[in-house]
């Protein structure tokens, strides 16, 4: 087994690490407190090529592999989850369906502006009554001449309502037992983007409900063959799990970084608290769990890059890292004592940001279902 | 104009530095990276090129080090250098600053640059001197801790950071300039540059290929000898004045300061 990153992967990781420390860390607390979308950071990330890492260079993408993408997500999440999810959702969920299922015209139209980060894309799957049971889509699309007419609602949709949101790919019922994906550009009459949610965490990311009321898009906005929507979104979620796993991994590492630095600095009973066994046990356990989760996440990415089946490993990585992020953030707050409960220290934000990782893009329970099925249950 | 940027592979800043008591050398076994100070030199070269006052035909990154040092060159070309030269040879291991400066100067002789740029210090050895040693061998003028640089008509006008203020110095090219980190804000390499870095030429040179005399490099050719390594003395703990009665506290602080002739 080869555990070494390539020179390019290492350099990308180090660059994103420097970028996160130099550009994201100084503003993360303020973005979180003011719930402000990080437009400047998205522009800078776009300039560096971080908004289109795994897409072909001919469309302005980075032409890099899934592992490179996961490394970049990890390094961003290590410092701030809002910025990380903005990039990850744009890539895995927003741009990926158009890249994978779009025809030449759709790819030519959307990919260059999305890969550059000038515009953002969203993926509209979840509905008020279709979360884990995403196949229970109520949104309908009916063909009327040369147009699809869409009616329904979506919720918890990331990157859907920013000033630079370009489009959303929605799943819609196009027949009784048929789901299809359609591209809906922002600004299309009948497509309304609701007010952003008040969330527990990920405060600087854009998450909104969407509604479609007689929304008409050209027939050519159908993504891939009609009726393939179910299969398509499962494929998108499969790959997306690697990005979300990298978020959990990054958050856990960031929490450990903060906890370790604090423990070495904070003194009690005449010595740094890092010299106490109870603190050491927490740090040692979390560091070990992180290393195991890292190997699992990188392995899922590597399997995908090799074209091998990765569904099981990606679901395991997502399950493992989400839980780990919650636990690591909690331990980091505990190590910080009272200071961990106030917003002066990043671990407070990490604690709020972590919980969604056991829910978003497939709950733990859905991951367990995917894993069990893959094992033959 | 041709600019050579000297770069060095150093332990990552996040890695706790450790000196091997056996060899008395820095333990370089952990993660390594391009010396952060040298990125300012590359950025300065890029800004001269992009400034358009002079035509910069080529920016060449040069390093001396083991095989892993190619990673530093890889980053240097991702940051904008056009090609790189890697001086690597077992006879060079253990070279001190003077021997390293001599070896690098031999590489630079073959390149004939109009300007040599480097960071003012390395993040590991922190000697601040390699630029001056290289310049001495090349018989070029040298300036250190330069934080502003204007190029025109075969000369440079530099501001260098002095203890109390700045010196403005004019220097004729070719010259060796070590830059301070206040000179610029190095860019991040873009993903495109990272992916394209390996397509840029990399020459690996052995000591003999650039005319280095083996007796002048390595441990044997180094005149400095590390006899012992000791940790710096522990800082004495400060004095904490408890604020029970503010008037008394102020008096105590004033007395403490007066005693040390600070007020």
Write out the strand line-up for the largest beta sheet of chain A, numbering strands in chain order.
Answer: 1-4-5-8
Cα distance spanning the termini of chain B: 54 Å
The biggest sheet of chain A amounts to: 4 strands, mixed
Assign the CATH architecture of chain B: 3-Layer(aba) Sandwich
Q: What helical percentage do the residues of chain B reach?
A: 25-40%
- CATH class category name of chain B: Alpha Beta
Largest inter-chain interface? A-B, 18 and 15 residues
CATH superfamily of chain B: HUPs
CATH topology of the largest domain in chain A: Butyryl-CoA Dehydrogenase, subunit A, domain 3
Question: In the residues of chain A, how many domains can be counted?
Answer: 3
From the spread of the alpha carbons, the general shape of chain B counts as globular
Mean pLDDT of chain A: 97
Terminal residue distance of chain A: 29 Å
Q: In percent, how helical is the residue content of chain A?
A: 40-55%
**Structural class, judged by helices and strands of chain A?**
alpha+beta
Which value, in Å, is the CA radius of gyration of chain A? 21 Å
* String of helices and strands of chain A: HHHHHEEEEEEEEHEEHHHH
Mind summarizing the main beta sheet of chain B? 9 strands, mixed
Give the strand order, joined by hyphens, for the main sheet of chain B: 9-8-7-10-6-1-4-5-11
CATH architecture of the largest domain in chain A: Up-down Bundle
């Amino acid at each position: 087994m080869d555990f070494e990153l390539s020179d390019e992967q290492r350099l990308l990781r180090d660059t994103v690490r420097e970028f996160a420390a130099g550009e994201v860390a100084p503003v993360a607390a303020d973005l979180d407190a003011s719930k402000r979308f990080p437009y400047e950071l998205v522009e800078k990330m776009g300039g560096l090529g971080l908004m289109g890492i795994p897409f072909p260079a001919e469309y302005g993408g980075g032409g890099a592999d899934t592992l490179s993408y996961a490394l970049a997500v990890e390094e961003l999440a290590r410092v701030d989850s809002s910025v990380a999810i903005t990039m990850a959702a744009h890539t895995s969920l927003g741009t990926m369906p158009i890249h994978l299922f779009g025809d030449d015209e759709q790819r030519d139209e959307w990919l260059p502006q999305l890969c550059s980060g000038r515009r953002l894309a969203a993926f509209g799957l979840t509905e008020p009554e279709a979360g884990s049971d995403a196949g229970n889509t109520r949104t309908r699309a009916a063909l009327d001449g040369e147009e699809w007419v869409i009616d329904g609602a979506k919720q918890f949709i990331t990157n859907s309502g920013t000033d630079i949101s370009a489009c959303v790919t929605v799943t819609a019922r196009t027949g009784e037992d048929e789901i299809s994906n359609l591209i809906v550009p922002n600004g299309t009459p009948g497509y309304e983007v609701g007010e952003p949610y008040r969330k527990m965490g990920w405060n600087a990311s854009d998450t909104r409900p969407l509604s479609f009321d007689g929304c008409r898009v050209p027939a050519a906005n159908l993504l891939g063959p009609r009726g393939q929507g179910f299969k398509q979104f499962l494929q998108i979620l499969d790959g997306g799990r690697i990005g979300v796993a990298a978020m959990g991994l990054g958050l856990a590492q960031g929490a450990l970084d903060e906890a370790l630095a604090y423990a070495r600095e904070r003194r009690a009973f005449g010595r740094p608290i890092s010299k106490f066994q109870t603190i050491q046990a927490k740090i040692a356990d979390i560091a070990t769990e992180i290393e195991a989760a890292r190997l699992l996440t990188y392995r899922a990415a590597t399997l995908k890059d090799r074209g091998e089946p990765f569904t099981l490993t990606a679901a395991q990585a997502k399950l493992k890292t989400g839980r780990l992020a919650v636990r690591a953030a909690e331990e980091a707050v505990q190590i910080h004592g009272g200071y961990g409960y106030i917003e002066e220290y990043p671990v407070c934000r990490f604690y709020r940001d972590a919980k969604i990782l056991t829910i978003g893009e497939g709950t733990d329970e859905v991951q367990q279902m995917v894993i069990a099925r893959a094992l033959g249950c | 104009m041709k600019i050579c940027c000297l770069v060095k592979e150093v332990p990552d800043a996040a890695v706790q530095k450790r000196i091997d008591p056996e060899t008395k050398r820095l333990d370089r076994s952990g993660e390594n990276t391009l010396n952060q100070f040298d990125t300012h030199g590359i950025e300065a070269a890029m800004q001269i090129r992009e400034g358009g006052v002079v035509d910069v035909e080529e920016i060449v990154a040069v390093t001396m080090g083991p095989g892993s040092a190619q990673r530093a060159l890889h980053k240097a070309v991702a940051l904008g250098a056009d090609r790189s030269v890697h001086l690597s040879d077992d006879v060079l291991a253990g070279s001190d600053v003077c021997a390293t400066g001599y070896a690098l100067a031999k590489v630079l002789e073959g390149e004939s640059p109009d300007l040599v740029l480097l960071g003012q210090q390395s993040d590991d050895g922190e000697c601040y001197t390699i630029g001056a040693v290289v310049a001495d061998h090349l018989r070029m003028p040298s300036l250190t801790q330069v934080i502003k640089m204007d190029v025109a008509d075969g000369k440079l006008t530099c501001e260098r950071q002095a203890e109390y203020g700045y010196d403005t110095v004019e220097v004729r090219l070719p010259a060796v300039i070590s830059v301070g980190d206040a000179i610029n804000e190095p860019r991040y390499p873009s993903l495109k540059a990272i992916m394209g870095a390996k397509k840029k030429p990399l020459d690996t040179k052995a000591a003999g290929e650039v005319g280095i005399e083996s007796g002048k490099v390595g441990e044997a050719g180094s005149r400095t000898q590390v006899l012992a390594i000791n940790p710096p003395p522990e800082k004495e703990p400060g004095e904490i004045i408890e604020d029970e009665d503010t008037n008394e506290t102020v008096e105590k602080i004033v007395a403490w300061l007066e005693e040390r002739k600070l007020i």
